Amino acid sequence: MINQQLKTLATGLLAFGLMTNVAQAGLMNLVQNGEFENTGVKPGKWAPVGDVPQWYSGEGKIEIWAESFQWGNRKGSDGLATGQHAEITWKTDDPSKANIWTQFVIPETFAYGSTAFFSFDYQNRSSQGILGSVEVNGSDVLWFDGSSKNKWTAMNLEVAGLSAGDSVRLLFQSNGGGSSGGHIDQVEFNVAVPIPGTMALLGLGLAGFGLSRRKK
Predict the structure, then answer these.
(1) Is the pLDDT of residue 200 over 90?
(2) CB–CB of 90/57 below 8 Å?
(3) What is the number of domains present in the chain?
(4) How far is CA 132 from CA 5, 102, 153, in A?
(5) Is 111 helix (H, G, I), strand (E, B) or coil?
(6) Parent domain of 14
(7) Residue 24, Cβ neighbours under 10 Å: how many?
(8) What is the per-residue pLDDT across 103-162, written as a single tens digit (0 to 9) for each?
């Protein structure tokens, strides 16, 4: 009887330990095409593109600069004269249209209570910088404003208070500059999700605990 109780206790402790392992999480980037590579713009060229996967514009088109297209030092931030990136905006004088955005939903596997990490590279052209916001379920939760002084600069921000199922929109605007605004590249929004292996182990641990109780 004592041995059986010890086995049950050991199994319960194992299950508890496996449950705590769920706190171990990896990061998942929810932004698709954050490097603006999937646009079809040929190397050495630029073009206003109306269909940039997972990105949208108030103007209806986004100006994409392809690798090797060099106007001044406006190359992709991911390497010397390589990588496509976006310029905000595409020839508009209407501030309400001077923006681009991407949107996504926080996955059900999101580790509740964890902080999301939002980052991107930006630089000025004729603008004074890049403005923007993080919207969650239609409400602004974070504003950002940066001036890069004509060189690629990293912006790193944290977003708290998210829950699984939340709808998130990342909005970018050029702070002035007319048709020669600011540039962005390497956009990421990383959230914590459980490492898949820990979820499987949790299930096995709980199953073992249940079997031990039934044997009593």
Answers:
(1) no
(2) yes
(3) 2
(4) 60, 12, 15
(5) coil
(6) 1-24+195-216
(7) 12
(8) 999 999 998 888 999 999 988 776 667 889 999 999 999 999 887 667 788 999 999 999
